[in-house]
Amino acid sequence: MRINNLSQKARTIAALCVLVFVMVVAELVAAITQDRALEHERTEVVEELSLLRARLEAEVNSTLFLTHGMISYVAINPSTTWANYKAMASELFKDDNHIRNIGLAPNNIVQFVYPLVGNERVLGLDYRNNKDQWAAVKRAIELDKTVVAGPLTLVQGGQGLIARTPIYERASALTPGKERKYWGLASIVIDTQSLFSAVGLAARHGTLDIAVRGRDGLGEKGETFLGREALFAQPDSVKLHVTMSHGSWQIAAVPIGGWGVGDRSSLIVRSIGLAIGAILSILIYVLLTLIHRNQVLALHDPLTKLPNRRLMYDRLDQLAGLYKRNSNGFALLFIDLDGFKAINDRFGHDVGDQVLIEVSERLTALTRQTDTISRVGGDEFVVVLPCNGDRCALSLLVDKISAGLNAPMIALGYEVDIKASVGCACFPEDADTVDALMKLADDKMYETKHSKLQVS
Questions:
Q1: How far apart are CA 448 and CA 214, in angstroms?
Q2: Half-sphere exposure at residue 1, Cβ-oriented, CA atoms within 13 angstroms
Q3: Backbone φ/ψ region at 113: left (φ over 0), alpha (ψ -120 to 50), beta
Q4: Where are the alpha helices (DSSP H) in 227-307?
């Protein structure tokens, strides 16, 4: 039996298993790291978008608040004049840069607008005849609340938000019981470009890709008027509602380029895992190789690489133990080279070593895979042969081995005439213990050697 300890294939598989295990662990850590990084990034996006929403709501609502005084005045004084209106409107323009113009529409027809320059085209506009604006006007009248429409294209040109508030004449103390009478509308036009610039709202805001929908305050049902509409269909986009007077917008955002584009933490973890895995797998392979070499040195002859006496005895003990279970015996051949010392003396130890290597190779070629060949001394070899007790077949095998070993050989350029003496003993027929079997085979080998000397 050829003895194989830890093979190169087994060492390679062990090293690869370590590498795969480390990479799996690194992948798990990288996934956790990536999830945490994405969660942190999402939190930052929510915070930035929330701040943007707060600024937008504050700017819009503060602008709308400015019109309350004018509306109250008109409700009390429905016969207001252009002079009075101009005085109030000019004061409002001093407080807010987003206001583009302020108008009054008695009976839903625009008759007052400030500033007049640049807005002349809106005078005389009858909302009831304007299909683009009448729906929002009607909604404000029905709700009796301020309704923000737009962004839309203005009659006087440009884009703006229009906040419309219905005005009802207030009963005076002299006319108690008088019912509220609809007077018309007050409208304030907010310049969208100025508003969006003030709050920092743009389709690309810093590192964010932003979209806004909800034209005319319709929230999710309204049209998209800023950015890409596809952002609202993305399941991973951050979405917030912007609340205005009796309406809302919806704002959506994702990082430009996608989530996690700037994060390198998972790549770093994977790289570190690969490096650690490679180092550990190499160390494991080297360690197993050293263990393998130590096993070879401990159980094999360093010159011929054959099993040594220790491993040979272990094999004999195994076969002796198996005999008790399956009754299969074995034979032991004790081989000694004749005149080996003379070869060393004549040609040198290098030639002698080469002769021993050649003998080991010949024995390997002359025996079976199930046989065990060992070098137990300087020029002594033992062959263990599992057999079925057929003495005739065993005798033929011994003759074959002897003939193979006795053939001349070339060692380091020298022709060497080598002879071998073989002693054979069978277990359990000749001896029923390993030590007794070994001694008997050794004795028979010497008997063969002496008989050759007597003949010569």
A1: 111
A2: 13
A3: beta
A4: 265-299
Alpha carbons 97 and 195: distance in angstroms, whole number: 9
Angstrom CA distances, 154 to 84, 189, 190, stand at 25, 9, 11
What pLDDT does residue 60 have?
A: 86
Estimate to the nearest angstrom the gap between the alpha carbon of 97 and the chain centroid. 51
Name the segment(s) of the chain with CATH classification 3.30.450.350. 66-198
The secondary structure of the chain in percent helix, strand, coil, rounded to multiples of 5, reads 50, 25, 25
Rounded CA gap, 427 and 127, in Å?
Answer: 120
At the fourth CATH level, the homologous superfamily of domain 303-455 is Reverse transcriptase/Diguanylate cyclase domain (3.30.70.270)
66-198: CATH topology is: Beta-Lactamase (3.30.450)
Residues 239-294 pLDDT 10s:
999 988 778 999 999 999 888 887 788 888 888 988 998 999 899 888 888 887 77
pLDDT digits (tens, 9 = 90+) for 95-149: 666 888 889 999 999 999 988 888 888 889 998 998 888 888 888 888 888 888 8
Q: Is the pTM of this model over 0.90?
A: no
**Facing residues of 189 across strands?**
101, 162
H helix or E strand, kind and range, residue 450? helix 434-455
Closest-CA residue to 260 (of 50, 51, 49, 40): 40
Q: pLDDT band at residue 173, thresholds of 50, 70 and 90? A: very low
d(CA 428, CA 322): 12
Count CA within 13 A, CB hemisphere, residue 260: 14
Q: Whole-angstrom Cα distance, residue 141 to residue 135? A: 10
What is d(CA 231, CA 252) in angstroms, rounded to the nearest whole number? 6
What's the confidence (pLDDT) of residue 170? 75
Please give the structure tokens belonging to residue 217. Answer: 């305050």
